[in-house]
Description:
The structure holds two protein chains of two kinds. Helix content of chain A is 53%, strand content 14%. Chain A is of the alpha+beta class. Chain A folds into three domains: 1-37; 39-197; 220-402, Growth Hormone, Chain: A (Up-down Bundle). In chain A, a hairpin with a 2-residue loop joins strand 3 (103-107) and strand 4. The longest helix of chain A has 27 residues, at 376-402. In chain B, helix 4 (238-254) packs antiparallel against helix 5. At the A-B interface, helix 2, strand 9 and helix 13 of A face helix 1 and helix 3 of B.
Amino acid sequence: MHNNLYLLLSNLDHVVIRTAGCRILIWALFACLFAPVTSSAHLLNMTELHLDSTHPTSATLKIKIDLGQSLMTAEEYWNASTSDVQEQSIIIKEIADEIKSGVRLTVDDRSVDFELHAWSLEASSLEAIKNPFSPQMAQLVFDLNSTMPSEGSVEIQIGEQLEVPWPALLRMDHASSPLPISRLLTESERTSRPITFGNYLETPEEELSAKAVLAIQTLVPGLKWIALGFQHIIPKGLDHIVFVLGLFFLSTGVKTLILQVSCFTLAHSLTLGMATFGLVSAPGAIVEPLIAASIICIALDNLYSESLARWRLMMVTLFGLLHGLGFASVLSGLDLPRENFLSSLLLFNIGVEIGQLTVLMMAFVAVGWMRSWSQYTERVARPATISIAGIGTYWLINRITFI
Amino acid sequence: MKNNLGKERHAKNAVGILFVVCSIAIFDVAYSARNSPPLSFPLTGRASGQFPSNWIHGSKSAMDNTDPAIQVHAYNEHTYILRENKAINYEGAFMYLFFGNGVAMLIDQGSTSSPALFPLREVVDQIIRGWEEQHNQANTELIVANSHLHGDHYAAWNQFVDRPNTVMVGLTHEEMMAFWKIENYPQQIVTYDLGGRELVVTGTPGHQGSELAIYDGWTDLLYTGDMFYRGRLYLEDWDAWVSSIRKLRSIADRYPVAHLVNNHIEMTRQPGVDYPIGTTWQPNEPPMQMTLDMLDIAVGATNDIGSPGIYIYDDFLIYNQIPWYTTTDP
């Protein structure tokens, strides 16, 4: 009787019934026809499955189930629980076979069989078994016929032919996982869906891409630090981008630009290195407004200088030292590895330089090709430089006010 | 002449720079205005809220019930209390949805699994969407947590497993404690930052061995789950419950408490009289929220009760270590 009720009700679950009245009406109709319903106080008779593979050489599946309210009648369960060991063993093995045919355990898409190893039957009285508010639970322990791999994917499914008191709580313990994994199986969702453990990746594509990343990492171990350095210019280092553009718009030729960028790079590498070793330090509240001020200085100099003065190179070098301190505060949060400290620092710097060069290349592509145009200074360089000075001024006000 | 040209150039440059500064400032202000300032949940003072005068409490005939499957009540703008329709499941379990900046926490998932009967995810998603619109928020993460590990409080848990941007705390003791960072259950008291909203969390076993109580410092609500409510307090471990109820009292001594809120109503308004187990219509049920005076009576009971049995108090019944099917029903 229970099986019929559950099958009919689970089919109903697939139909979205919008009003509570309709839902209740249909459910109640079936409940009246096929009672008794197995609900109990606080759903204490719900089914529990525990897949334990913490031991390297064996794995067990424990199932705690209210047999007297599901796979057996209350009387059958009472008889089983009060009969001698031999008779009980025959009855329980039949039930175990029913469970084995209804519960499908797959590991890495391969079906894994399990055999009944032990059981215990809780039964204080026939009345208690009959009463849905006093669940009398049976525990069946199955041994898996194979051990669980160190990594993989496992899925447990309760077939349509097996009706258990719902929902069914699944707990999985695996040697590779410090915490158990829980899932809830319901009448309409009878599978745990694949549960991965260890370093297993679900699809071959995922596995392939992870392997590719690992291979690149092995070949170029410092790639991560170069990427981080690059990211600290593009897109995170907006003030450094604006500063480098300030150097670009002095507009007196490629040689001049390379000279300035080289001085800037050497200088900020120096302070970055010294700051990382703890030799110099400056609070962000001072460094950040000064960086904004350096942008204004460069832009103003662009507006009033026709050529690269020697003192401008000194100024760029000084500002480089300042920007290096700004990078250092970022780098302190990156936790460079102790064993490869110097190489990581160097690679981070290389990433920063690649970022700066990328900014310059993009500027060349955008407007550099117009340099020979007679109106370039008035129509391109000057408006751009005024914008840079404006941005620097805004940052300066902002940083003084809010830092 | 040259001087004039120079002055004109200076002026043009200055105006240009000023124009850029003003433009960025206007853009910045406009952009900041688009993003609302973070929500604030100060611990000083009390964020007040309202309970409904009556909760929807089932109907004489479950078949004729036209109430929604889930009653949604906004206690205040960032705190929602949900109740499962008693006509769907007699437990009529309460669930709680707390909001913080960028995050919502759903505590408990009711007693019915079927999304057709009990569309909890749909309702929670509607609440979150409405809340996001009202408070100019987006991409709110949902944390699906539980007060304790009894099936009548997580039956609809499965509805959320494939929900995007969702953290499933888990249905084992270990997963729960790992999430809350409780290393020494039940003694340890931890604070949890729910997007700027401070929750004080501690273990309160007795009814069930993984139960938690949660104090919300913003509303001063003390959530006691199934270990203290207006109904039959089923205790599997008396000593643990004694410690838990005394700990709740010490929390109430340390923090201001507005109301004690919980998971069920099983009492009638008549002192010491409960509705029979399995009741699906409770027209005379009292409010869900409880008072500190009631907590004091429970603390007093810990000194009076010495053996298993049913102990009747005006606002709750203590079922101390007796089978669940034993009742006071006539």
